[in-house]
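Q: What would this chain look like folded?
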Amino acid sequence: MTKSKNQMNFKTMAQTDVPQGRNGKHKVIVSKILADLDQVDDGIALKIPLSELADGKEKVRSALNRATRKDGRNVATATDANFLYIWNEPQAS
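A: My prediction, written as structure tokens:
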């Protein structure tokens, strides 16, 4: 229900129906990367073909950076002409 008699500019919906949380377009690839990082030993890097990164390595790196900061994780990345490499960094004591 609206409080004013003026014409609304936007549609409305019940707040309980509003989606909670952000599912960005890189969530799938970042989730896969984090799941794999949870399974590798120290000193092992993931080797991801750049051809599998539809939006490019920069955008995936940014999304990964946001996700790892949120989780308090330390990861490092490197690239060459064909691959994005990602590995777990030791936690600072």
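The chain is about 30% helix and 15% strand.
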